[in-house]
Each structure stands twice: as C-alpha cells, then as structure tokens.
Automatic annotation (TrEMBL):
'KMSKS' region, short sequence motif: residues: 235-239
Name the record gives this protein: Tyrosine--tRNA ligase
The encoding gene: tyrS
Organism: Buchnera aphidicola (Artemisaphis artemisicola)
Annotated binding of ATP, by residue: K238
Gene Ontology biological-process entries: tyrosyl-tRNA aminoacylation
C-alpha cells in the first residue's frame, strides 16, 4: 500500500469517524514515516470485536511503512475510562491487571509485525512512567493546562454529571489527564505524532493534543474509528451483554464465525470494507453483482472466513467451517472431537447425560420438547434427527449414536440443536 492518500483509503472504507487537520496529516504521512499509537486498558482478560477497527488501522499504517505502537494501560486500567459508561467501573486488582496485560499483549501480537526493522511494532506499558510520578508534580506540571470548565463540558463527562443517581468520582474524572499525559510522553520519547482510537475516545485524544501543544508547541494529530453497535443500539463492549471476545476460550472460533454469518444483510459490504484487506473495487463489484444475482450468503461467508482467519488463524477457521457443515449441511464425515468440544463450550446448548430412557426422554431433557407427547408427535412428523440422520420412530440410544464415544447431536428441524454429552 502506498503512503499517498492513505487517509482517503481509510475514509473510503468507512474506517474514519473523526480526524484532525487532515491536510497537514496527509502531507506528513506522504513525505515521511511516522509513529502512531493506540492504547488498550487491560480491564479484562481479552479484547473483543469492538477493538478490531483500531487494530486494523494500525496494521494498515504499518503496511504503508509507518511504525505502530501499542500502549497497554497498566496504570490507567487501575482508574478506568468513564467515557460514555453509565456507571463507575469496578476497580481491578494489580494481580488481575498483570495477568490480563500478558493475555492481551499476546492477542495483539498476532495483528502486527514486530520484526520489520524500522517499522516494527512496539509494545509499551504506561505503568512504566506513571509509577515514577509524584502526584504534586503531576498536578502542577500537567493539571494546570486543563480547566474544569472544558473538562465537564465533554460529552462523555456531561452525561454522567447530569445523572443524580450516578454522578462521576474524582478518580474517573482524572482519567482524561492521564491519557493526555500518555500522548505527551510518547511524543517526547518515541516521536509519536498520531493517536487513534474509537469514537468514544475523541475527548481523551484531543486532551493529549492540547497538552502537547501547550508544553511543546508541537502539532500532533488524532483519528478515531466508528463504534461497532449491536442491534439493540448498544456498543460492543466488555461490560455489555452479547460480547464477542477475541479469546477462543471465551468465544469459540465457531461462535465467532457464526456471529459474522448472522449479521444483517445490509451490513455485509460495509463490514467487508472495514474488516478485510481486499480491494474496495472488488467489494463494490461484489455488491453490484449481488443486486442482480442475490449472492449475499456467498459474500457473508467470505466476510466470516476473512475475519475468523485474521483473528483465530486458518486452523480454527477450518474447524468453524467443519462445525457449520456438520450442523447445517449434515456433513458428519469430517467432524473432529475437538470441533464437538467447541460446540459443547458455547456453540449450541448441551446437557450432561448419564441414563436416558429413550429419544422422547432426551428431547424433553434437552428442552427441544415440552413433553413426551409433544416429542412423540415431533418424531412422527419427521422433524427430529440424531447425528444429522432423520428418526421416524422412538429410539433407544446405543454406542453407535455416540460420536467419539462421548457426543450425540440431537436436532429439531434445521435450526434447533442440543448436544448430548455422555
């Protein structure tokens, strides 16, 4: 990718929400290689899909010859970013933050190149400098550049202040200064000229630019990505329900794959532009062809495969495809025991069974039926399958029904499944 018009390319793919002084930033990245950074607070043991867009932008900048820096918020995570949160975060212990930092750092290392000479990605932790700071010096040398008037008028803060049931603590209120100081330190020590983040970080990013201008008289830049929103209007975040994690132990690769397979059709080409690295001309061509040939499932599958491979790798993508084929295409030949373990974890409902009388009993225990009478009618109507094979009469389970001696897939129709774990 050429450095020229990189910002235009990002915008054309829907990756930019806000940007400062675009003309000057364009000239800067056209004529030189820059260092840029994005911060991630380890407030849990995994990143989630809401973090993907900043990581993809870092990757695109690195592909264009620039140096990405990841800043782990070992110090700021002790405080918690209040930006657009409805209530104060639960404070985390130093031990947890230390463990989570290692896990998140490992996740991030899969997205960027840390061995490419001058543009190698760099991983830092802001606890390195905050643990040395004297509170009085910080208030005197940094706090004096910020007025309470401006700070309380930031949208993220104002929303909390006007809520008498919540309000905002001084602890959270100070977070803005801490992130601003991060940008200042990175500019001083690593010549970072651009900070990126989600759209909810705009206030924190602009505070960093303000501090650098006041203390060093330098121009630096900020760029934010759109926030990924759930169908209920809530952003994808660690504290909201329905979180899709990047850690395979929290969200299995199969469930991750199925998330993208089940997005609304209207988002497919939008997400192809944002999350994949295929040329935008090809995406536009796919979208145009879909209007004539209705190939939305084909393109949705391509999206799911691309993002699953990016996050989990080819091996786990193949596992997700095998499970999908097993459940929806009735292909049992290629399924592996590890695939069924994925299904058991969070792919479909499962029950531990020891002694089941018959198929009717299993249907009731698995909640696929409300009663034995209803189960009997389902079987007679040819809507029940065991390991993808239709069953037309009541059935007594035997060892041949147990895949790998452990699992039996019980299905009602095409979409309702339960995994019996013997």
């Amino acid at each position: 990718m050429s450095k020229v018009n990189l910002i235009d390319k990002l915008r054309n793919r829907g990756l930019i929400s806000y940007i400062t002084n675009e003309d000057n930033l364009n000239k800067l990245i056209e004529n030189s290689s820059i260092s840029l950074y994005c911060g991630f607070d380890p407030t849990d043991d995994s990143l989630h899909i809401g973090h993907l867009l900043p990581l993809i932008i870092l990757k695109r900048f690195q592909m264009a010859g620039h140096k990405p820096i990841i800043l782990i918020g070992g110090a700021t995570s002790l405080i918690g970013d209040p930006s657009f949160k409805k209530k104060e975060r639960i404070f985390n212990t130093n031990d947890n933050i230390s463990k989570w930092t290692k896990k998140i750092s490992k996740q991030i290392s899969c997205f960027l190149d840390f061995n490419s000479e001058s543009k190698s990605a760099l991983l830092l932790n802001n606890n390195t400098w905050f643990k040395k700071i004297n509170i009085l010096s910080f208030l005197r040398d940094t706090g004096k550049y910020f007025t309470i008037n401006k700070m309380i008028n930031r949208a993220a803060i104002k929303k909390r202040i006007i809520r008498p049931d919540q309000g905002i603590s001084f602890t959270e209120f100070s977070y803005n200064l801490l992130q601003a100081y991060d940008f200042f330190i990175l500019n001083q020590k690593y010549q970072v000229e651009l900070q990126i983040g989600g759209a909810d970080q705009w206030g924190n990013i602009s505070s960093g630019m303000h501090l650098i201008h006041k203390k060093s008289q330098k121009e630096v830049y900020g760029l934010t990505t759109p926030l990924l929103m759930q169908s209920n209007g809530m952003k994808f975040g660690k504290t909201e329900s329905g979180t899709i994690w990047l850690d395979a132990n929290k969200t299995s690769p199969y469930k991750f794959y199925q998330f993208w397979m089940n997005i609304e059709d209207s988002n497919v080409y939008y997400f192809l532009k944002m999350f994949t690295f295929i040329k935008i001309t090809e995406i536009n061509k796919r979208e145009q062809e879909n209007s004539f040939n209705n190939q939305i499932i084909k393109d949705k599958t391509f999206l799911a495969k691309s993002i699953t491979s990016l996050v989990h790798g080819e091996e786990q993508l193949l596992a997700a495809e095998r499970i999908t084929s097993f459940l929806f295409c009735k292909n049992i030949d290629d399924i592996k025991e590890s695939d069924l373990q994925q299904l058991r974890k969070d792919g479909i409902p499962s029950i531990q069974v020891y002694n089941i009388k018959d198929l009717q009993d299993a249907l009731v225990l698995s909640s696929l039926s409300k009663s034995r009478t209803q189960a009997k009618n389902m079987i007679i109507s040819n809507s029940i399958s065991i390991n993808t094979k239709r069953i037309r009469k009541n059935h007594i389970f035997n060892n041949n029904d147990k895949l790998f001696g452990k699992f039996t897939l019980l299905s009602r129709g095409k979409k309702h499944h339960s995994l019996l774990c013997w």
